[in-house]
Amino acid sequence: MTKATLTNDQQFARLCENGFGFVSTAIEQLWQNGSPDALKYSVINFYSGIELLLKARLMHEHWTLIVADSNKADVEEFLNGEAQTVGFMQAVQRLKKVARVTVPQNAVSSFDELRKHRNRMVHFYHPIDVNEPDQSKQREAVILEQCRGWFYLRRLLGDEWNDIFEAFQNQVQDINLAMKRHHEYLRAVYQQIQPELELERQKGAFLAACSACGFDAQVLVTVGPQEQKCRVCLAEESFLVHVCPDPDCGKSTTLPVEECDAWVCEHCQTSIELDEVLVAYTLEGKADHDDYNPVGLCTECHHTPETAGTLDDGERCFCFNCFCWPERIEFCEWCNEPFTGEANGTFWSGCERCDGQAGWTRDD
Ligand SMILES: [Zn+2]
Ligand SMILES: [Zn+2]
Ligand SMILES: [Zn+2]
Ligand SMILES: [Zn+2]
């Protein structure tokens, strides 16, 4: 009897079904009190589910992309499930490089945290004793980790990749429902830390909603770009706070991510220009600074006009559109234009704006 092989579409559907299955099982296991291993398997299965769903997204571009060594990709082996497939980081890199699909940095860190935790559970003897008081602490950590992980994954599957995962939106909804107990737990944490938050507010902090858990638990104390950690779910998120330019208002307002063309003050609706914000927090055009520090092209979001600048401390870089924190801004060796990334080699290869000498030679 020959083994039936699955088509590409069936293979994609199977990866998705397995992925959602692992995530659901993990959530159930987390609330099982009986077995000492339940928590351990919850960590392992949750991560496996996340990884499978990311691979499914990659596979949707082309099946060879999820085979670890694409050069050796063999369709029969793949369809029979015998091919060695990529790991999580490789999947993220291939999505970016080949499909130009960027998984946001916060999501990558959250998935990577789940991956590391899973590895600790798998590779080391890591018993969890239900009778130990420590177990509830461990469970708390896992709840927070899973809330953050699911939040980022849900945003990808349900919004950005909605068309690709269209047939699986019911599963997304089911998992949202299954996460209810996780959320009840977060609500209890939020209520518990109310006095602490209120104290911060009285000291002048601004409380913003956390995009991972939804509670107003991100404490913003200064103006300008900043990274904060949610007091409830511990998700890290970048914010941009600016003082409204209208003198009659003059209040601090948070400027939303990916909307730098349409910023307005949340209190009085005065529009806030990108240029004004760049001047306020970056070195560009600051007379007391000798180096040339123009705003560069962000290679994460590709927004034009350029949105990535070196902050006033002269060290950190920030993209005022997508709120990423690039390592550095360098100048293309061929066209001299600034961009976020490594200029080494661009004389030949060019940057996102030019084809370098290679392109020049080819045109001749
Ligand atoms: Zn949160
Ligand atoms: Zn205002
Ligand atoms: Zn950007
Ligand atoms: Zn260039």
Describe the protein in words.
The chain has 364 residues and is mainly alpha-helical. The chain has 2 domains: 8-190; 292-364, no CATH class. The chain is 45% helix and 10% strand. It has helices spanning 8-30, 38-61, 75-79, 88-99, 105-123, 134-160, 169-178, 180-192, 194-202, 274-281, 346-349, 356-363, and strands spanning 206-208, 218-220, 224-229, 236-243, 252-254, 308-310, 317-319, 329-331, 338-340. The strands form 4 sheets. The protein has a 3-stranded antiparallel β-sheet. Strand 8 (329-331) and strand 9 (338-340) form a beta hairpin. Helix 2 crosses helix 5. The radius of gyration is 24 Å and the shape is flat. The termini are far apart. One zinc ion binds next to loops.
Summarize this structure briefly:
With 364 residues, this protein is mainly α. It has helices at 8-30, 38-61, 75-79, 88-99, 105-123, 134-160, 169-178, 180-192, 194-202, 274-281, 346-349, 356-363; strands at 206-208, 218-220, 224-229, 236-243, 252-254, 308-310, 317-319, 329-331, 338-340.
Name the features.
12 helices, binds zinc ion, three-stranded antiparallel sheet, mainly alpha, 9 strands
